[in-house]
Amino acid sequence: xxxxxxxxxxxxxxxxxxxxxxxxxxxxxxxxxxxxxxxxxxxxxxxxxxxxxxxxxxxxxxxxxxxxxxxxxxxxxxxxxxxxxxxxxxxxxxxxxxxxxxxxxxxxxxxxxxxxxxxxxxxxxxxxxxxxxxxxxxxxxxxxxxxxxxxxxxxxxxxxxxxxxxxxxxxxxxxxxxxxxxxxxxxxxxxxxxxxxxxxxxxxxxxxxxxxxxxxxxxxxxxxxxxxxxxxxxxxxxx
Length: 239
Hints:
The protein is mainly α. It has one domain. The protein is built from nine helices and no strands. Helix 2 (about 45-70) runs parallel beside helix 5, helix 5 (about 130-160) packs antiparallel against helix 8 and helix 7 (about 185-205) runs antiparallel to helix 8. The N and C termini lie far apart (about 50 Å).
């Protein structure tokens, strides 16, 4: 496996790694702190749109590395899974579990919102149906972007520059980086997302494709849509 795009590709890869391991955690932590200190309620729809845009940029950056570096798609997980049957069964099991939990937790929606507020996450939860639409898009895009970055790209990056690292070590390392990326949620949030990262990393290693972890990741994010579904409200002006 070689980086065939020359110095530009190498610099681009280093920048993307720096973003995943350092810049993204600091930016998200700083942004949440600013929102929590703000006197007025944030424009959540605007936040969702900006987040979706950043997720699109991240996904496009990973694809750009493949394009610039001449890497085989398998190096970044941009291939079909080894077994469609296994992918369908495992993915369906996770989705079914998420739906089951979401339905059972619906009656505890406000309690869960308060718990997330203590972790710094409730500030991003939607309160109206209009906000919910963009929140849903953000949840789906997050699964795609974060799996492309933390599983597809970082698996390639660490295995390229640490050629003796094995698969379990890759899963552990990328899961830890993924957890640190959610530092704005506090230590409990870091621990929870690290465990989630271990799950996504295992699914990626099993299937050899980003498809399964991305679907499971996005489905898990969408639990918030089902559990915390807000009451219908008058949509704000789009002017």
